[in-house]
């Protein structure tokens, strides 16, 4: 039915009404002369129906023989539609240009996205692919994926794997970052395990070497915990790389004092300009600062990012001035800086006890922590051969 309706629309057809006379004779004569009728409906004193333009010319003779009068009710079809707008050239030209623009844009890259990166910035990855031809506005069919992937792998050694997929007007770049090779440790280098700071030993597990301290012993920084020198049964001495896990209860003291007068920067704008970008075209508006701060906003409709953006470029001015804080703000800033120091100091440690005192902008704390104080220290070995020391 859809194909039949499309065919009738292309050829054109009319809807007409016939009144008076003999409707049954009219329909029989139309059938005899091969005049197609559809949407045939009976009305009081007549009927309504549709037929194609060429057949309607034959209906007049049929109507006279059946004593009926026909009248066109409406006209339908492509020919009538064109005739209706034949004087509106601009509308037709706009439709043609719109279709041409749509065809061109549908074959271009609108959006470039990167996924799978954590440490390597997306801007750096996109910049490399733009050098290789994957840019906004580039024809999608001209992008040679295999060649671009090989060249990008050479320019981005931080990535172990990358892949680019062209899906419609979007280019999706999937990457996998390379893991750094672990530092090689010389297993044959003899060393001792010493205390990295003062504390009281809570747990001691020697993995290799000779244990020199006991649980509950108080040690100072640099004291020997596990020796890398082993005495054999034949009274000979062998050396190894001592390893172990030594947990000690340690004391940490952190102090911070916040001044009430501080130097602060205020940010202002001197010049501001705008850049309108559409694919590869750029339209500057106003004076664009050379080394300004750029903020880009893209046009999105129903979650689809279009290749149209507005970039605001402004020149920032930093002005340094001395300001005096209130007592409340001084205390809040001191507390913020103090706990920032605590985060850096106690990363990886377990805090058992904490005593914090604050007086305005001055804050101090005593902390009792459990931490691994084992630290490897290379041994200095002197070998005596024939009375000479090598």
Number of helices: 8
The assigned structural class equals alpha+beta
* Share in β-strands: over 45%
> First CA to last CA: what distance?
104 Å
* Helical proportion, percent range: 25-40%
What is the arithmetic mean of pLDDT? Answer: 84
Q: What is the domain tally?
A: 4
Task: Give the overall form.
Answer: elongated
Query: How many beta strands in the DSSP annotation?
Result: 24
The largest beta-sheet arranges its strands as: 11-9-15-21-20
- Round the Cα radius of gyration to an integer and report it: 44 Å
Structural notes for this entry:
The protein has 390 residues and is of the alpha+beta class. The protein folds into 4 domains: 2-82, Metallocarboxypeptidase-like (Alpha-Beta Plaits); 111-177, Ubiquitin-like (UB roll), CATH 3.10.20.310; 188-260 and 325-390, no CATH class; 264-323, no CATH class. The chain contains 8 helices and 24 strands. The strands form 7 sheets. Strands 11-9-15-21-20 form a 5-stranded antiparallel beta sheet. A 4-stranded antiparallel beta sheet has the order 2-3-1-4. Strands 10-12-8-22 form a 4-stranded antiparallel beta sheet, with no helix packed on it. Helix 2 (23-32) packs across helix 3. It is elongated. Mean pLDDT is 84; it is low at 384-390.
């Amino acid at each position: 039915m859809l194909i039949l309706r499309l065919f009738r629309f292309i050829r054109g057809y009319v809807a007409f009404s016939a009144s008076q006379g003999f409707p049954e004779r009219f329909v029989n004569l139309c059938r005899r002369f091969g005049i197609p009728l559809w949407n045939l409906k009976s009305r009081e004193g007549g009927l309504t129906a549709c037929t194609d333009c060429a057949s309607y010319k034959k209906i007049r003779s049929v109507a006279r023989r059946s004593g009926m009068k026909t009248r066109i009710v409406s006209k339908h079809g492509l020919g009538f539609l064109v005739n209706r707008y034949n004087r509106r050239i601009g509308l037709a030209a706009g439709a043609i240009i719109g279709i041409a623009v749509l065809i061109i844009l549908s074959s271009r890259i609108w959006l470039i996205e990167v996924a799978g990166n954590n440490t390597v910035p997306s801007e750096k990855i996109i910049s490399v692919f733009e050098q290789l031809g994957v840019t906004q506005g580039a024809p999608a069919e001209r992008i040679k994926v295999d060649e671009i992937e090989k060249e990008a792998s050479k320019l981005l050694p931080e990535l172990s794997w990358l892949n680019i997929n062209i899906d419609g007007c979007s280019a999706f770049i999937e990457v996998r970052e390379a893991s750094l090779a672990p530092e090689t440790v010389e297993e044959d280098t003899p060393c001792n395990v010493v205390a990295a700071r003062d504390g009281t030993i809570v747990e001691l597990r020697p993995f290799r070497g000779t244990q020199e301290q006991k649980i509950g012993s108080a040690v100072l920084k640099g004291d020997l915990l596990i020796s890398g020198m082993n005495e054999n049964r034949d009274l000979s001495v062998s050396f190894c790389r001592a390893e172990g896990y030594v947990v000690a209860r340690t004391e940490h003291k952190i102090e911070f004092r916040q001044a009430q007068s501080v130097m602060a920067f205020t940010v202002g704008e001197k010049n501001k300009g705008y850049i309108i970008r559409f694919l590869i075209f750029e339209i500057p508006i106003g004076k664009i600062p050379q080394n300004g701060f750029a903020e880009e906003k893209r046009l999105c409709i129903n979650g689809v990012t279009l290749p149209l953006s507005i970039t605001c470029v402004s020149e920032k001015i930093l002005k340094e001035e001395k300001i005096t804080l209130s007592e409340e703000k001084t205390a809040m800033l001191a507390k913020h800086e103090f706990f920032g120091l605590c985060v850096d100091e106690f990363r990886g440690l377990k805090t058992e006890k904490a005593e914090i005192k604050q007086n305005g902008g001055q804050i101090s704390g005593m902390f009792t922590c459990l931490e691994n104080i084992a630290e490897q220290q290379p041994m200095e070995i002197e070998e005596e051969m024939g009375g000479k020391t090598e």
